[in-house]
Design a protein that fits this description.
The chain folds into two domains: 85 residues, no CATH class; 160 residues, 3-Layer(aba) Sandwich (Beta-lactamase), CATH 3.40.710. 47% of the residues lie in helices and 8% in strands. The protein has ten helices and four strands. Helix 3 packs parallel to helix 8. The chain is globular and about 60 Å long.
Length: 259
Amino acid sequence: MNRFKIELAFLFVMLLNTALAQTHFQKLDAWLDQNTREMGGRSILVIYKDGKLVYSHSANNMNMRQKMAARYVARKQGKTVDMEDYTLSTRLNIASCSKWYSAALMMTFVDEGKLKLTDTVGKYLPMLSQHGKGGITISQCLSHLTGIQAPELKENIKDVVDANSMDEVIATIAKMPVEGEPGKTFHYSNTGLQIAGAVIEKISGKNFETLFAERIAAPLGMKNTDFGKKKVALPAGGALSTPEDYLNFLVMIMKQRRF
């Protein structure tokens, strides 16, 4: 077979593979297009397999109510409204998906032997001990099992956003009522991870934002991810990230913590 025939055969195989791949994902494309409105109006789905990104598709099907909400939020934040399609580099507040980032950061201290999941928070944060909460463990902080009766999420977030220091936030948490025994009372809230974040700040002498940048973002090439660069980080919901960066993080988890 001469060189021309070899090149022609190679081109045919490549085109066939592309056509098969497109056909294979047509139903997935259609599903995302049809259901995106129910998921907020805009979405992006990526699939990673065998060391590479094999699929990426975005859908934009915002209704009038969703567009109005987007304009309202942008206006409140002093920003221009963004109605563009999501891409791999679109940077958004990822809300509670921040918890994965924060838990991974905590575990770097556990891996280094600087912290144990069985450690009690009073060891590092005496303020909590003074209010009867010093016996809560790091593990309970990461599992929503602190037993602390936290306020509604909106109010809780405002407390952190308006605070001038992590110590100020911990002082507020210390005064919160207790609703049950730690380890036996589940209450989904930001409180546990906030306490855990304060603990690693005490251990390291660095703020949470810096620790995340040094230990997670930089090693994983997450160039567009941070926790808002505010006075006090919100470990449970304050991260801003992109699909590309989050994929880098998930690949690290899949590879069992090998950066």
